Every structure is written in structure tokens, then in C-alpha cells.
């Protein structure tokens, strides 16, 4: 998945001789989940507002895609705060079927340096899910993403389908 500026989020800056110790050590997690039935756009706006208030206190940045009941999120920052946030998300009744798609920890620049939490529109969900499915390392995660894409295609997640 490329970042908003078109760069590869997995690419490291610097030479190939090893990690650049001058870059920060960042832990990142990418996950998707189904929203509980009561979650609507207004609730997501409240979630994003809370994230924008709290994430800077924990040095967490990232982006959230939401539409028709699916959350897809990239989180990055120091390991302990990101792990603690993921633990809270797994316990949050607004999230069901949390699937962690990837995690890594490396010395690199932030993918989302200025985004304490950016909300990406639902019109981009198909592209985000398809890219995640193509790069998923765990076959179970790939199957879950394929199911979500099929539901999107068949109209079961019609509010996520871009108007084309």
C-alpha cells in the first residue's frame, strides 16, 4: 500500500548496510475489523476526534478508513503505546472480528508524520482492502479480506462501494 505521497510505507530510508540508527524506532500495526451495528458516521467522527486528542500524547500517528461497517487502520509509534491501543481496540464493543494484518518494528521515518489520525473516505475502501489482500502474509487474513471484497462487490456492503 502506498502512502498519500505515493511512497512505499515499507521502504527504509538510508543505505542497505543496516538500520539507520538516526531514524526513530517505530512499531506499526495494520488491522481491519467490523463495526458493531450501532456505529455510524457520527460515531466514527467521535472516534477520530478522540484519537486526534489522545494520539499525540502517546506519539501515535496513522490513518483510518471506514465505510459500511468496516474499519481499516494503520497505526505507528512507539511499541508500548501502539500495543496498548490495539489491546483497547480489541476490547472496544464498537469493534468485532479484529484482524491484525501486519506488524513491524524498524528504524524509519513515519509514513503519516502529520496525521495524528486521518480519516480516509469510504470511496477508497475497495483499493485499500484489495491492496491489503494482495500483501497479506497470513492466508486466513487474506481470506477474510477476500470475503470483505466479495461482500463489497455483491452489494452487501453497498455504502462502501464507490459511485462509478
Counting DSSP E segments of at least 2 residues, the number of strands comes to 5
Describe the biggest sheet? 5 strands, mixed
CATH topology of the domain at 25-121: Alpha-Beta Plaits
Helix content: 25-40%
- Rounded to the nearest angstrom, the distance between the terminal CA atoms is 22 Å
Number of H/I helices: 4
User: What string, H for helix and E for strand, traces the elements in order?
Assistant: EHEEHEEHH
Strand order of the largest sheet: 4-1-3-2-5
Compute the gyration radius: what is it? 16 Å
Give the averaged pLDDT, no decimals.
78
Strand content: 25-35%
Q: What shape does the CA trace take?
A: globular
| Structure classification | alpha+beta
Architecture of the domain at 25-121, according to CATH?
A: 2-Layer Sandwich
Low-confidence stretches: 1-17, 158-164
Level-1 CATH class name of the domain at 25-121? Alpha Beta
